[in-house]
Design goal:
Distance between the termini: 39 Å
Largest sheet: none
Strand content: under 5%
Order of helices and strands: HHHHHHHHH
Number of strands: 0
Radius of gyration: 18 Å
Shape: globular
Amino acid sequence: MDELIRNLAVYALPVLLAITMHDAAQAHVARWFGDNTAHADGRTTFNPLAHIDPFGTIVIPVIMYLMTSFVFGYAKPLRINYGQMRHPKRDMAWVALSGPAANFIMALLWLLIAIFLHHFAVQEAFPNLVAKAGIETNLWLMAFNLLPIPSMDGGRVVFSLLPHKAAFHFARLEPYGFIILLLLILVHVLTYWLLFVESKAMSLLLLIVSPLNFLLN
């Protein structure tokens, strides 16, 4: 039981911050391009309380960890009205990409924390585990949301890049997005996608911090 509580405590802050930054970033970018819907809902704040969904942010992650040792969660639905943007089809891609980009930056910050913990020889397990969980959680959330299927951020990028007629047909798949996701899980494509994106993102992160590692070593 003590180990369970410790592990839940390790992931609590990384999951909360990852979800909050993802949604807040998209709300800010949507406002930048002319849509104030999310801002009016109070979602441009970085206060986690504005983004927490009691079931998706707390209950679901705890249940999934207890059942599978895997942590997953989500925030309140983020209302965005693309019709209010100056160039809806183009701007949609930037809004969609801003969430995964925020998670990439968060992963970088957690990696920097991990590097400094190592440099200053911090031996306590808890802060090192939290930093590791922060990297993993943000890279996972980034990779998951970049799935190129309707309703996901990656799907919105695909819609934005497709010609109008093809984009219209692609958008009609959105009601089946969850079914498509389940199929990807069943055939293990989702696992390969997550591992591929996470590994490439981690390689890029290590490249970014390599000058710091050189200076510290």
